[in-house]
């Protein structure tokens, strides 16, 4: 069950400005960006990012390029971001991280955004604040705003408990995603107050222990990479065999995603971080057929802007 948010913003005139307003009473999972990898071919499929919206609190999971824009398309106010969770520091998961921080800060943010990422996230954030320091300082001195750093708290986590509030409890599991070392790339599990379990695989190889972490998930958002599709992508882009071999070695086939979903007894499998996107030979039916060899449950092939209602 899913729908798409209207692309046209519901706007509220404020002087000469128009701001996004939340119309969402329904808790939902929004797929902001569903493309795997950092290359940009089409605005229809931007790199990996998702959001859970519960009681108007927004939890962003990964921040691939365009995440801020996609939130606005989905009528989600940036100032409602409560926490950002980063699976790993590949650029297709973080290029919009500085944009999310700056854009939410400059959109009437009135609370601290908590950021949870693997080792390296604090240093990255400090350097980003330094990179934007001219603007931050001017807006602080000239416009009387509180500095961005006052609205930001960054935590580096390892496997286990990560975060808890009235809506969600978040835990993390290490997953294998070369060339990162084990402990530098993670999956997340959101246990909601309404007893739903939503799991994000992050970028990963086939990893049987992950099925235990994702056990009985209501929704599993899983990455996927199609071997023949990557062959065709490498040829189209003029990349050599090292690109092809690296992409295949760092990710997971549809068949193995199917095995994982079956072993985890997942109710609904949602594909995101899809590699490649835009291949005419890879229709939704092809992905579903390959996964269906090993998983008989509901499969949703993710697209940017797709909204999956939560309980
Ligand atoms: Zn990735
Ligand atoms: Zn990655």
Can you tag this structure with a few keywords?
about 300 residues, alpha/beta, eight-stranded mixed beta sheet, seven-stranded mixed beta sheet, 9 helices, 17 strands, about 30% strand, binds zinc ion
Plain-language structure description:
- The longest helix has 11 residues, at 121-131.
- By secondary structure, this protein is an alpha/beta fold.
- A hairpin with a 2-residue loop joins strand 5 (49-54) and strand 6 (57-63).
- The chain is globular and about 60 Å long.
- Helix 6 (227-237) runs antiparallel to helix 7 (241-250) and helix 8 packs across helix 9 (284-292).
- The termini are close together.
- Helix content is 26%, strand content 29%.
- 45% of the residues are buried.
- An eight-stranded mixed β-sheet has the order 1-17-4-5-6-7-8-9. Strands 10-11-12-13-14-15-16 form a seven-stranded mixed β-sheet. The chain has a two-stranded antiparallel ribbon with strand order 2-3.
- The chain contains nine helices and 17 strands.
- One zinc ion binds at residues 88, 90, 177, 203.
- One zinc ion binds at residues 36, 48, 90, 92-93, 203, 273.
Report a brief summary of the structure.
The chain has about 300 residues and is α/β, with parallel strands linked by helices. It contains nine helices and 17 strands. Helix 8 packs across helix 9.
Record the SSE blueprint.
Elements: E1 3-4, E2 11-14, E3 17-20, E4 28-33, E5 49-54, E6 57-63, H1 67-73, E7 81-85, H2 97-105, E8 113-117, H3 121-131, H4 133-142, E9 152-156, E10 160-164, E11 168-174, E12 186-192, E13 197-200, H5 210-213, E14 219-225, H6 227-237, H7 241-250, H8 254-263, E15 268-275, H9 284-292, E16 298-301, E17 306-309
Parallel strand pairs: 6-7, 7-8, 8-9, 13-14, 14-15, 15-16
Antiparallel strand pairs: 1-17, 2-3, 4-5, 4-17, 5-6, 10-11, 11-12, 12-13
Helix pairs in contact: 6-7, 8-9
The protein binds zinc ion (ZN) (2 copies).
The site of one zinc ion has 7 residues, from loops.
